[in-house]
Design goal:
Chain lengths: ~725, ~325
């Protein structure tokens, strides 16, 4: 991990206790502030970012004499120890693309295991399980790069020995290694040949640490244009024998055809030499291969069954030996050609020294052993001991990360493989490669899915998934795919998912709705209702009252809706002016549409009706309207949901109705009801928690007088 | 004339962008040879937003950036149009600003830009926002004088500038006694049928509100409608609706004016589909991630561009 330091002039912040073996790397931060720097504050931002706040000392002078500098700056430092071959954007693309194959495999696993439970089969891994895993592996592999890495150009340059294609990545190379050894059970029979192909595709990656056959060919390719007599250059033969040793037969044959003896003016006097070159070229292109098929551009003859292959192999070897012992070599004048070709024959005959000389890294030597010394190797047998032997023959101070992974795989050490995947290729690789690792090996399955106390009761597999989900969660664009991985974690996945969902911003509706959608998918109703509550409160607090009410209603949050209606009562009750009522009408409308969730709102709805009719009364003077208003008043007062503290304002508002001149609008029983309520109110006033409504002091008495008068008139009327 | 053929699946090309696609639109152009798309992008690495004009090259489709304009914040809505020999791109941002970009219609290079800041915008749209801040829905103009808005509670309002003071008509989305309500995310009005408002929103709901029969919305898709005739393609948010101008065998005149024209929708659960009244929806695209926006090319209605959640753009060609 990088260590932060500040290049603030004197550099006083830098010193380290240099007890660590590797000296720490110092990265300067360019904050652009004038020294001196008084204070630093460091905190984590989202994901892998550090937020460094740099403060300058407060200017000692009195105000007005500032030096025109800002007081401080905040610098965001991205700590990126990511893969140099793959950018962040590409990583995200891989992360998105791997969701579907992963989810499909998980659902297949669960259906297969439920099926096997029914049929009491001993293992869920039936024959067709391989097919699922290999399909998954191919899907993932296609994400990591083009399907054909070394597709050639349409018009071939005769001198272009190596075809240029898409740059291969180590990630894809690593994935293919895992696929070869763990997933693709069909190709176990011809494992060595698959390794030959693998090296042909990815040898260029290994050049980053040491020379490889690939790097030698690339170097030679550059010189090729300048060479007049190609066969006199020892490099020509060197490179060819190297390519032959690792089985790049097409490259070798193509290079052989560049031999000077093929030129028309030379053909006549170099007949024997040309015959020898051509004979070797034909032998190379006829090499028997133990594999079902070959690419069209690759050379060799394929044999599916071992007996056929063995027969063909013996015949081919006999032909080589015959050529090696033939008398034509004496007639060949060109020493370079003679020695070069015979060296190639020795390689094909499996001469250990020749192979050793022709290869550069142990993996290349290893491959050449499979091709020419132990062509009958099938499956995994003794592969590791051979690898160890090759490593001794070609010792290297450090290995490429792919080679370290390969050593782990050959050593059949799952822990090493996992550790290499995790360290070199990151959490994405581990999580997705575990599916390959467990395919078919019950031992690995147990190792990875066994619950461990040291990990807090979860398995290694789950731990890695949780780590990966954590990485996804920390990015604003990938958090939405974290739930797929979290839900596949039996022990702690769901609780972490809940935390993830709770931690998302509720500010913007689109994001909020995406969040709620995830809750719906995983049936987390309680989470979504909490989120909606949070959103409701957020919007309400920020003055978007309608949004607030909407989300609280969606959450069916009766408590808060009641609170809101209380608030509404208060503000509506404060004045009955037309304007203020209009302001709230929209919200009351909104609240009213689903009044079942909040009892108090029912009152508010009625209150609105009452207010409306009261307005009509004050506008015109029809008795009918007044009677209707009085009806609404009685309804309101009868309703148990009408808050007590509202009674007096209501009655005070309707004084006009109580004192209606033409006739009493309330009958005796109605008036008695109101008087009783008033009495109740007077009693309640004695309690300490009573809130005095904001009304003139004479309000109570004037209501009482009006009611009494009305009672008298009503009695007279009846 | 009516040739009924088995509908072939559309050709789909997905083009990764390595940036979040906030909105996509086709750019109407004068030239018949070049095609351009406008993308509102958000780069999470640099935390910056931009509106970019990309040219589309066919076989295989590829987008190449032609010109770009840095937006002060993320784009919430994007529209394009052609006027006075200039193509116009209008972008609104989540911070509340509005930006009008003018581009050359021949080579799609951006020429000028006008911005309206947050506070100025508020005055200009005061008429619209009589709801005092609680409204945050969508709107669509039907004519220079009339427009429709939609928002919370599946509500729609019809406004007329000649009649200020409030909406001319209102629709409250309580046609079904549901436990939960939803939000209208998108509205479309067909230029030849201004009396019908097409709306899409939560719970996969797509409905048409005819001003002539205001009480009875026509539900094209949605859950819990209880109507066996309307099938639902999606159960989650319908982010965008547009009338689908691509017709194979029938022409517009033959369809009764009471019938709702076919509409295209895109949804949170990754579905791009054409829904038609009383018919099975046709799914054009099903993605594992959300489809946040789409646009049908005005000149080639067979072509659709979609903005996908996973930082990519999909281009569909219907045959």
């Amino acid at each position: 991990m990088a260590v932060m330091a500040l290049d603030s002039g004197d550099g006083s912040l830098v010193p380290f206790s240099s007890e660590t073996r590797d000296s720490p790397v110092v990265y300067p931060i360019h904050h652009g502030l004038k020294p001196p720097v008084a204070r630093l504050a460091i905190s984590w931002s989202r994901g892998n970012s550090l937020r460094v706040s740099v403060f300058r000392p407060p200017s000692g002078n009195d105000s007005g004499e500032s030096d025109g500098e800002v007081g401080g700056k905040v610098v965001e430092v991205k700590l990126n120890d990511g893969d140099p071959e793959i950018s962040d954007g590409q990583w995200r693309r891989i992360a998105y693309g791997s969701v579907s194959p992963f989810a499909l495999l998980q659902s297949r696993r669960s259906s297969v295991s439920s099926l096997s439970k029914m049929s009491m089969s001993p293992s869920p891994y039936d024959v067709d399980w391989w097919e699922y895993v290999i399909e998954y592996s191919k899907d993932i592999s296609s994400l990591l790069g083009g399907s054909n890495l070394t597709r050639g150009p349409i018009i071939e340059d005769p001198k272009a020995v190596l075809k240029k294609g898409e740059e291969p990545t180590s990630l894809k190379a690593a994935w293919e290694l895992m696929e070869i050894f763990y997933a693709d059970k069909q190709s176990q029979e011809w494992l060595p040949e698959r390794l030959v192909d693998w090296l042909a595709d990815y040898d260029s990656l290994l050049s980053s640490t040491h020379a490889t056959v690939h790097s030698k060919i690339v170097d030679f390719q550059k010189e090729l244009v300048r060479l007049q007599v190609i066969e006199n250059d020892p490099k020509y033969w060197e490179v060819m024998s190297s390519a032959l040793a690792v089985g790049w037969l097409d490259v070798v044959v193509k290079m052989l055809r560049l031999h000077g003896s093929y030129q028309l003016d030379q053909l006549s006097n170099r007949e024997t030499e040309n015959g020898l070159v051509e004979a070797v070229a034909i032998l190379i292109s006829k090499m028997p291969r133990l594999r079902p098929e070959l690419d069209a551009r690759k050379l060799g003859e394929c044999f599916k069954s071992k007996p056929d292959f063995v027969k063909a192999w013996e015949k081919w070897r006999a032909q080589i030996t015959k050529l090696d012992c033939s008398a034509y070599w004496v007639q060949c004048d060109n020493q370079h050609t003679r020695e070069g070709l015979r060296n190639m024959l020795h390689i094909m005959l499996g001469n250990a020294d020749s192979l050793h000389r022709a290869t550069y890294q142990w993996i290349e030597l290893y491959i050449s052993h499979f091709l020419y010394i132990r062509p009958f190797t099938m499956g995994f047998e003794s592969m590791y001991s051979l690898a160890q032997k090759c490593m001794q023959l070609k010792p290297m101070s450090c290995y490429h990360r792919l080679i370290r992974l390969l050593i782990g795989i050959l050593g059949e050490n799952t822990e090493v493989v996992l550790a290499e995947c995790s360290r070199e290729f990151g959490p994405w690789m581990v999580v997705h490669a575990i599916e390959l690792l467990t395919a078919g090996s019950e031992q690995t399955e147990i190792l990875l899915h066994e619950e461990r106390d040291s990990l807090g009761g979860i398995s290694i597999g789950e731990l890695h998934r949780l780590v990966y989900a954590q990485v996804l969660s920390s990015h604003a664009l990938t958090w939405q795919i974290a739930p797929i991985y979290l839900t596949s974690c039996v022990k702690q996945g769901m609780s972490l998912l809940e935390i993830l969902l709770y931690s998302q911003s509720v500010q913007h509706n689109q994001l909020l709705l995406k969040n709620i959608e995830i809750c719906r998918l995983y049936e987390l109703d309680h989470v979504s209702s909490s989120i909606m509550k949070v959103a409701g409160v957020y919007h309400w607090k920020h003055g978007r009252k309608g949004s607030g009410v909407f989300w609280l209603q969606q959450a069916q949050d009766a408590v808060r809706l009641n609170k809101i209606s209380q608030q509404l009562f208060d503000s509506v009750g404060k004045s009955i002016s037309d304007e203020s009522f209009k302001q709230w009408e929209g919200i009351i409308e909104l609240l009213g549409s689903e009044s079942k969730t909040a009892v108090g709102l029912e009152f508010l709805h009625k209150y609105r009706d009452f207010k409306k009719s009261l307005q009509q009364v004050s506008g015109g003077k029809t008795t009918d309207a007044a009677r209707q208003a009085a009806e609404s008043l009685i309804l309101l007062m009868k309703n148990p949901s009408t808050p007590q503290r509202f009674w007096l304002p209501l009655l005070y508002d309707s004084l006009k109705l109580l004192n209606w001149l033409e006739q009493p609008l309330l009958n005796v029983s109605q008036t008695n009801l109101l008087l009783n309520k008033l009495q109740e109110l007077s009693m309640a006033r004695l309690r300490p928690d009573f809130i005095e409504p904001n009304l003139p002091t004479h309000a109570l008495s004037s209501v009482r007088i009006a009611l009494a008068t009305n009672l008298g008139r009503a009695i007279l009327e009846e | 004339m009516a040739i009924t053929t088995i509908t072939e699946p559309p050709q789909i090309h997905r083009l990764p962008q390595h940036k979040y696609v906030d909105a996509v639109r086709w750019l109407p152009l004068l030239s018949a040879f070049d095609r351009f798309a406008v993308l509102a992008l958000f780069d999470s690495d640099s935390d910056s937003s931009s509106v970019e004009i990309h040219s589309l090259t066919p076989t295989p489709p590829a987008l190449t950036s032609q010109s770009s304009w840095v937006s002060p914040s993320r784009v919430s809505s994007l529209k394009t149009s052609l006027s006075h020999q200039k193509t116009i791109v209008v972008a609104s941002t989540i911070a509340g600003s509005l930006h009008v970009l003018f581009s050359d219609p021949m080579d799609a290079s951006l020429e000028s830009e006008i911005s309206v800041a947050d506070n100025a915008l508020h005055v200009g749209t005061h008429f619209m926002c009589r709801f005092d801040g609680w409204w945050d829905g969508v709107s669509k103009w039907a004519s220079p004088m009339e427009f429709a808005t939609g928002g919370y509670g599946f509500s729609l309002q019809w406004w007329d500038q000649r009649k200020p003071g409030g909406p001319v008509s209102q629709f409250k989305g309580n046609w079904a006694q549901r436990m939960t309500s939803g939000i209208v995310h998108s509205i479309d009005i067909h230029p030849s049928r201004k009396h019908t408002c097409l709306a899409g929103g939560s719970l996969g709901t797509v409905f048409a509100w005819d001003l002539r029969w205001q009480e009875q919305p026509i539900i094209l898709s949605g859950v819990g409608t209880g109507d066996s005739l309307t099938r639902s393609t999606s159960e989650s948010e319908v982010w965008e609706v547009q009338y689908d101008r691509y017709m194979k065998s029938t022409n517009l005149g033959n369809i009764s004016s009471a019938r709702v024209l076919p509409a295209m929708i895109c949804s949170e659960d990754g579905i791009l589909a054409v829904v038609e009244q009383g018919e099975e929806p046709i799914e054009l695209l099903t993605e594992p991630c959300a489809i946040n926006s789409f646009d049908i090319d005005r000149h080639n209605p067979s072509d659709v561009i979609c903005g996908l959640e996973w930082e990519s753009v999909a281009i569909l060609t219907r045959s």
